[in-house]
Each structure stands twice: as C-alpha cells, then as structure tokens.
Amino acid sequence: MDVESILRPSRLFFVLVGFWPSENKKKPKLCRIKTYLIGIFVVTLAIDQCRTMLTLGTDAASLAEYSVDAVGLIVMSTKVIPFVVQRDSLLSMLSKTNGLSKHEEASNGQNIVKHWKLRHTIAVKYLTRLYLIVLVTYISAPLILQDKGFPLRGNFPSFIVNTSWYILAYVTESIMLSLATSGVLVCDMLLILFVCDLCSELNCTALLLEELGQGQRDFTTIVEKHVAALNYGKSFCDVTSVVFLFQAIVTTSAICLAGYTAMKTTSTIILTKMLMVLLTTMMQLFINCYIGEIITEAFLIVRTAIEDSDWLFCPSKDQKGAFLILLRTEKPLRLGVGTFGVMNLKSFTEFMYNALSYLAVLNTMIRGQ
Length: 369
Fold this sequence. Notes:
It is a multi-pass membrane protein. This is Odorant receptor. This protein is mainly α. It has one domain (3-87, 104-368). The protein has twelve helices and no strands. It has helices spanning 3-7, 11-17, 21-26, 28-56, 60-85, 87-105, 110-144, 166-210, 219-264, 268-308, 316-328, 345-368. The radius of gyration is 24 Å and the shape is elongated.
C-alpha cells in the first residue's frame, strides 16, 4: 500500500499545494514555493477581511454582516499556516507513513489495513464534498441571488462592480478562494492519512500479540513494530499539538461569532454563507476531537492484547520484550491541545458548551449597549 496510491484520488489538491511526495523529491523548490503561496493567499484574504470588518462594521448589524467572511478565513488560516510552517516535518511523516504501510502489507493483518484504508477513503470523500459545497456556495451565491458583489466582501473597491473589470476581479477572487480551500482540504487529508496509518499499525500490533500464544510470531518483530508505531504516533502528536491548540481557540470563537451573525442578519446571502461556515467549523472541531479519541482507543487495544496474551509462558527473552510493551502502554498516547488538555469526544462537548456560553454573553453585552 504505497502512500501515493492511497492519495491518488486527491492528487490534484496535493499537487496544487506542493505536498505530492514524488514531486517533492524531483522539484523541492517548486513545491515549497507552491506551499508558501497557498499560505500567503490564506493570510492575505484573512487580513483583508478582518480589515473590512473593523472598518465597515460600525454597529452590531453591520459587524455581523462583515464578520461572516472574516470568521471563515481566520479558521482557515489557523489550519493552513501551522502546516506551512511545519512543512518539512509533515513531509518526513509522509515518508514514515510509506514505510509503515509497506510493513503492514507484509503482515497477516490485511483485513485491518483494508478496514483503515476504507475509513480513510470514506472520510476523504466526505470532506471533499463538504468543502466543495461550501466553496461553490461562496462563489455562486452572489450570482444566484443576483447580488452585484463578490464571493468575499471588501477585497475590491465597490466601484469595480459597475466597470468592465468586474468579471476579471470576480474570477481572480474565486481562484484565490479555491486555492485557499485546497490548502485547508490537504491539511485535513494529511491528518486523516496519518491517523489511519497509525491506528492500522497499532491494530496490527494487537493482532500479532493475540497470535503470540499460538507460536506464530517472533516477539522481537512485535516489539519493533510497536516501537515504530509509538514513535510515529509521538511524532504526529508533537507536530499537531500546537496546531490543535490554535484551532480549538479560534474554532470556539468562530462558532460563537457565527451563531451571533446567524441570529442577527436579515440578508439571505449572509445567512447562507454563515450557516456554511458554522457547519464546516463544527465539523472540523468534531473531526479533530474524534481523531484524538480513536488514537487513544487504538493505543489501549494494544494494552488489552498484551494483558490477555500468554506472554508469561514465553521464554525469558520474550518476557522482557512483553514487559517493555507493558511499560510503554502505562502512559496512553493522547492527542494534546498544547499543554492544556487532550482532544477527545468529551473535549468536543466542552468546546461546544464554551462556544454557546460565549454566544450568550456576547448577545447579552451587545443588547445591553
């Protein structure tokens, strides 16, 4: 199971963002430039929308109206920028993913590999469709609703609408928004790939431990496989810890602002956009929390397998290896939110509760003015 064969259905997005593995080996500078350009597009759009929101949002109604695009782009920035900064680490993990995948093919856990490969495919398809729906909604809403404007508000002066440059400006902004969305989609695809590969490795390790008592496996191979999976998982958690911290903070705030905008706006196009942003933001937060949940669950499966195995009846050399695995499973592998907590389904409920609490406070404060 080569990593490029897994990513092939999404090759266009990875090539656009500069993360396609073989292209990175042949043209590393070009790929790096493409990655940085995506980051620049996202930051430029986010800064411009924030400027527009602060400049034109003179009251509660106008602030809610102009915050819709700013909220979405800020969330995109918190996802894309950390990945751009840690580009080399992510490419290194991609190479490790390739090695782990080959190791899985050589084991008897093909069913486990197929299971996680299927989950990866389903998740990628779902995310791709979701992002395409949001992107098409943003680009086509002004045209369908006959609103003489742009997909994003404030990037171009209003007088361009009545000039011959309107179509060119509209297409330019649509392309920039499409590239920025591709960057966010690739970030999510990488997360899903890393998690599925890690869980596949841990599940295969648990399977080998279950077969230990039947004399079918060499314990040294099992220990090496477990160590490789843990090192891979630790690298993943280290790379994404700060990323998830910023995303959790911004996403919670974004859900609060999106909810407030949805309650206050009377514009159909603004309401449509904000509902799309709210749906996407909540889905991203849920995916991040669910990723943390399944990583911990896969880790604990290994602990259960070693405890239920007949390692006490193995030779003394193998018993030492089993004891090392038990020691390593004392501290579960968890996806952290910086140093403030962990990502799991319980965290998702806490984030949503905090977002709704902030929304109630914000609504009360603005109503009291």
